[in-house]
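Section: protein folds

Sequence with per-residue tokens
===
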Amino acid sequence: MPFVRCVVLGTSLLMKPESGTSLTRRLALSISMLLIAGGALVSLAALAYGRQAAQTAFDRLLLGSARQIEASTSVLDGQVMADIPVSAFELLALAPEDRVVYRIVGHDGKTLTGYDSLVIPKENMAEVAYYDLEFGGEPIRVVALSHRFAERAFSGTIQVLVGHTLRARKALAQELVGSAILVVALVGVSMAGLAIFAVYSALRPLHRIERSFSSRDPRDLTPLDVAVPSELTPVVNAINRFMSRLGRQMETTNNLIADSAHQLRTPVAALRAQTELATEESDPAALAKALARIHARSRSLSRLTDQLLNRALVIHRNDSAVRTLVDVRTVAIETVDEFDIDSQGRSRELRLQLPEHAVWVRGDVLSLREACKNLVNNAFAHGQPPVTLSVFAEQGKVILAVEDRGKGMDPQTTSRAGERFLQSEETGRSGSGIGLAIVHEVTRAHEGSLRYSVDEVQGFKVSMVLPGENNASKD
């Protein structure tokens, strides 16, 4: 078994991935090592089988010869007589280089005929026994056959011994082994050729994947559509997922550039014009009004810039941030703590409703907090105070809701909620519409949904419905 262990160890070393090595070469070498190991085992088995087959064939010839000699013996006048026929040695004589010896031993242990040097083992012999001896300086194979006479003139057991040298046996064994090894070698070579062909055929889909990539436009990030075996499907799926993430990142970058160019140009130009007018204003009252407009414009521009950058950050974290267990109550509390007071220094009317026990989701706490802040900002910007931020669990879902006393959005706007700049383009109300787009992106990334509800008494409510994480041990 040491040889087999060496082959297995060599195969495992060949299969270890190394940078810059050929997968085809590693597979070919590994298969070759396995074929060599299998060929060696088959050769050893053929050698044992060849020797056993030759031994069995010639032992049967020896037994047949001994049976004929036994049949030729008889009792005459109380004496055992043997008239050995020539046919008893004809088959053994077909091996011209081998010698045939025989001996008939009487019941008293004396030789009746044959060679006295053809000895019998001391141990008890069965009716038919085979053993090996050395006769005349050459090894021989002997069969001993016991025959019992029970007649009035003679009663006793005689033994017939027939021996044959081993030259023909060895030649037959070598011929059998040689033929078997030749067959194994031919089969091994054929299998090696088929294995190499199979390896190249199995790796051909990899070349199709490479050709598909090299032939497409560098900006084409559509999913890869190549016919591959089922074993390579996970690889293609992983490539497509990576390309999808890369496509989303590029889309985010392009949208950020386009939105910045489109949305920031006008307020920056207006701010510059108002600043130029203020520098030329001599009336203190008019100057104060101009500065107030500049301050309001600056706050609006700052808010728009923050939302553009935050949306890009949220989309980026959707693909890159590690999801952890988050207590949504903590998200709500941190939102309230970070919420700005209004320009006059008075706290806004923001109420907080939380359950006694933790409510867990698996997600990105920064993205969830940003979505929550935008919901609260939208409620104050477009609704009526007081604003209530609540967290609760319902049928395995975690709900983070923001409610105000306003009338809410009309059905047409609600159906398009989540689009960038929807409010500024559709309703003409103040705001960029990016806040709700951020909420939509965060909810979608967390495999949740947005709910909108309007009640004449309670007002307008926006709810983020997220999959709950059942982990009571964290409470």
About this structure: The longest strand covers residues 138-150.
